[in-house]
Design goal:
The complex is a heterodimer. Chain A contains 15 helices and no strands. By secondary structure, chain A is an all-alpha fold. In chain B, helix 8 packs across helix 10 and helix 11 packs across helix 12. The chains are: A mainly alpha, B mainly alpha. Chains A and B meet through helix 7, helix 8, helix 13, helix 14 and helix 15 of A and helix 1, helix 6, helix 7, helix 8 and helix 11 of B.
C-alpha cells in the first residue's frame, strides 16, 4: 500500500469532515479505476452483463421459453443456435441472455433487502452501543451461525418456492454482513470531532446518524454490496440448481445447469454455457469488489467472498 | 484478561448463540401452515389420522413446552425424536450421515491446503512476476466458479470421458481405503477449490508480510539462499494466519458440502437436509439444521481459540 493510497482512502472513507458531495464521489470513482486494473476489468465485465440483461429482448434471436421438442431437441451449437438447444428444444443462447436479467434482478433486490435491514441495524448498534449493540449483534451472530446457503435453502423451503421468497431468503442471509460492516464503520466515526460538533450545536441523534455518520460509512458498504452481489447471484443459481430457486419456465442459469445433468455426456453444451455465464458474472463482481476494496477501504482485510 | 479467562468467556458466549440457533431450527417447523403433520401428509390427509398423530407427537401442547421437550431430549438423551412420516429414528439418521459429511469436509479442507499453500508460496516468492499473476488469476477463477458447475465439469471429464473416478456414491475409506478415496476425490476437489483460492491469497499476503521483517533480511544478509530462507524461516510464520483461514472457511465448506453431496449422490448431512425438504419431513430438517449449525459454531470457536493461542499479538476482548 502506498502513501497516496492511505491519504486518498482517508478522504474517501472515514477521515473527511462532512458528507462527500457528488463531485468528490466522482473523483473517487475516477481514481479507483485509474489505479486498479482489476477494478477496471471487473467494471467492463459487469457493465457487459448489465447491458446484456437490459437488452436481452433485443439481442436474443428466439423466445427463451419457446419449445420445439419434435424438431430441435438437444441440437449442438450451430450458426442458427450459437449455444445449441436444450432438452425441450429451447435456444440456449436466448435463455442465457434472459438468465442474466433474472440473475441481476434477484441479486440486486436481495442485496437491497440485506442493505435495508443490515445498515439501520448496524447504525443503531454502533451509535447507541450498550444493550442495543449487544442485542443486535448477538442476533446477527445467530443468523451467521448457519452456513449461508443452508439458511437460504431452509427459508425457501419454509416460505415456499417463489421468486420473491428467493430474494427475501438471500437478503436475510446476508443481512449480518451489512450490519457488521456498518457497525464497525460507525464505531470509528462516532468519536470524530465533527460528531461532537454536531452534538454541541444541538443536532438530534437522528440527524447526526443520517447527516454525519452514514455518509462516512458509505464506502465500505459499497464495497460489501459489490462482493455480496456476487454471492447473491451465486446463491440464486445454487438454489435453482437444487430445484428451490425461481420456478420454471424462468430461464435461471442454475436450473439450466441442473437440467443438463441428464444429458451431460450427450449434450455437454447444455451445461457449459450457463455455467460459464455464472462464472464470468461472478468473476466480474469479484474483480470489481476487490479493486474497490483496495482503493476505497485499504484497512479492511476480509477476503473476497467465495463459493458457497 | 489471560488466555484461560478468554477461553471461558468464548465458550460461555457460544451458549446464547446455540440457544438462538435451536429456537430458529425449532421455530421453522412450526411456522408452516397447518403444522408438521399436515406438511408431511398433505392437506387432504384423513382428519382423524391427523388428530391422532398430533396427539401422539404431543403437537397439541403449548409451543414452549414442545420446545423444552425437544431440547431436553437432545441435550440430555441425545434423542432427536422420530420422523413423523417414516417413523425412523432421527438420531440414527444423523449418526450415519454425519461421518460422511465430515469425511467430505475434511477432504475439501485438505485439497485447499495442498493446493493453496504451495500456490501462495510460489506467488509470494515471485511476486509481481508472471507466476504471481497466473496464480492470482487462477485463484479468482477458483473463487468464481460455482461448485455445482465445477462438479459437473469434473464428472464430465474424469468420470464420463476418462473414467478415472466414480461419478457418484460414497464408500467409507475406513472399510475400503482405495474405493473410499476414489469416491471422495472429485467431491473433495469440488468442495475445496474455492477455499484453496482463499488459502492461496492468504498465504501470499502473509508470506509477503513476513518477507519484510527484519529477521528475514538478517538471514539473507548472512548469505543464506532465498530458497532456504523461505523454507526454513518464512513459511512457518506465514502458516499461522493461513491455517486459521481454513478454519474460518469451514462454514463455506459445510454449505458447499450440501450442494456437492447432491451432485455426487453422497449420503451425508446435506443430502439428508435436502431430502427432508423435498419429502417434507420437517422434524428431520430441524434436527439436521441444528447439527450443522452446532458443528459450524464449534469449529469457529475452536479456530478462534487456536488463533488466539498461536498469535500473542491478539487482544482478548
Amino acid at each position: 500500500m502506498t502513501e497516496s493510497d492511505t491519504e486518498s482512502a482517508a478522504a474517501a472513507g472515514t477521515g473527511g469532515d462532512r458528507p462527500l458531495p457528488g463531485a468528490a464521489a466522482m473523483a473517487t470513482a475516477r481514481r479507483v479505476f485509474a489505479e486498479s486494473r482489476l477494478a477496471t476489468l471487473g467494471l467492463l465485465i459487469t457493465a457487459t452483463v448489465i447491458v446484456v440483461a437490459i437488452f436481452a429482448p433485443v439481442i436474443a434471436p428466439y423466445d427463451p421459453t419457446a419449445q420445439n421438442i419434435a424438431e430441435k431437441q438437444l441440437l449442438a451449437p450451430s450458426l442458427e443456435h450459437p449455444m445449441g438447444t436444450d432438452q425441450l428444444g429451447r435456444d440456449i443462447f436466448s435463455r442465457v441472455l434472459y438468465g442474466a436479467q433474472l440473475s441481476l434482478e434477484v441479486g440486486i433486490i436481495a442485496v437491497g433487502v440485506a442493505i435495508a435491514a443490515g445498515v439501520p441495524l448496524g447504525l443503531a448498534a454502533g451509535f447507541y452501543r450498550g444493550y442495543t449493540d449487544e442485542l443486535v449483534m448477538r442476533g446477527m451472530d445467530v443468523v451467521f451461525s448457519f452456513p449461508a446457503i443452508l439458511l437460504a435453502i431452509a427459508m425457501v423451503a419454509i416460505l415456499g418456492q417463489s421468486m420473491v421468497n428467493v430474494m427475501l431468503a438471500i437478503g436475510i442471509t446476508y443481512t449480518p454482513v451489512f450490519a457488521r460492516v456498518t457497525r464497525s464503520g460507525v464505531l470509528s466515526v462516532r468519536e470524530e470531532t465533527f460528531v461532537d460538533a454536531a452534538r454541541a450545536i444541538g443536532d438530534t441523534n437522528r440527524s447526526i446518524i443520517l447527516r454525519d455518520i452514514l455518509p462516512n460509512v458509505v464506502a465500505p458498504i459499497i464495497v460489501q454490496a459489490t462482493v455480496s452481489l456476487a454471492f447473491a447471484i451465486l446463491a440464486e443459481s445454487a438454489l435453482s440448481f437444487l430445484g428451490l430457486g425461481t420456478p420454471p419456465p424462468a430461464p435461471s442459469w442454475g436450473r439450466m445447469l441442473s437440467d443438463s445433468r441428464n444429458f451431460l455426456q450427450t449434450a455437454p453444451w447444455t451445461a457449459l454455457f450457463p455455467g460459464l455465464a455464472i462464472m464470468i458474472t461472478i468473476l466480474g463482481f469479484n474483480f470489481l469488489g476487490d479493486g474497490l476494496r483496495d482503493t476505497l477501504d485499504p484497512h479492511d482485510d476480509t477476503e473476497t467472498g467465495g463459493s458457497i | 484478561m489471560g488466555y484461560g479467562a478468554y477461553v471461558v468467556k468464548r465458550v460461555l458466549l457460544i451458549v446464547p448463540i446455540l440457544f438462538g440457533v435451536s429456537v430458529i431450527s425449532f421455530g421453522a417447523l412450526h411456522l408452516l401452515p397447518g403444522g408438521p403433520v399436515e406438511a408431511a401428509f398433505g392437506t387432504r390427509a384423513n382428519p382423524e389420522l391427523v388428530a391422532q398423530l398430533r396427539e401422539q407427537y404431543g403437537l397439541n401442547r403449548p409451543l414452549y413446552v414442545q420446545y423444552l421437550d425437544w431440547v431436553t431430549d437432545i441435550v440430555f438423551h441425545l434423542d432427536f425424536g422420530q420422523s413423523i412420516r417414516t417413523e425412523r429414528d432421527i438420531t440414527e439418521l444423523l449418526a450415519t450421515s454425519l461421518p460422511v459429511t465430515i469425511w467430505l469436509a475434511t477432504g475439501g479442507a485438505l485439497v485447499s491446503v495442498v493446493v493453496g499453500i504451495p500456490a501462495g508460496i510460489v506467488s509470494a516468492v515471485h511476486h509481481y512476476e508472471p507466476a504471481d499473476y497466473v496464480a492470482t488469476f487462477l485463484a479468482f477463477l477458483g473463487l468464481s466458479i460455482p461448485n455445482f458447475f465445477l462438479g459437473l465439469v469434473l464428472i464430465l471429464v474424469f468420470s464420463l470421458y476418462v473414467g478415472l473416478f466414480p461419478s457418484s456414491g460414497f464408500v467409507s475409506p475406513l472399510e475400503d481405503p482405495v474405493a473410499g478415496l476414489r469416491h471422495l476425490f472429485l467431491p473433495s476437489v469440488t468442495v475445496g477449490t474455492a477455499i484453496s483460492a482463499v488459502v492461496m491469497r492468504m498465504m501470499r499476503s502473509s508470506l509477503l508480510e513476513v518477507f519484510s521483517e527484519e529477521y528475514i533480511r538478517t538471514a539473507r544478509a548472512k548469505g543464506l539462499t532465498r530458497a532456504l530462507v523461505t523454507n526454513k524461516h518464512a513459511v512457518k510464520n506465514a502458516l499461522i494466519p493461513t491455517v486459521t483461514v481454513v478454519g474460518l472457511n469451514f462454514g463455506y465448506l459445510l454449505g458447499g458440502v450440501v450442494i456437492v453431496e447432491q451432485i455426487f449422490a453422497i449420503p451425508g448431512l446435506g443430502r439428508l437436509t435436502l431430502t427432508a425438504i423435498t419429502t417434507r419431513e420437517y422434524r428431520v430438517l430441524q434436527a439436521s439444521l441444528l447439527v450443522i449449525a452446532f458443528l459450524f459454531a464449534v469449529v469457529n470457536l475452536a479456530t478462534d481459540l487456536v488463533y488466539a493461542y498461536l498469535d500473542p499479538r491478539i487482544k482478548y476482548d
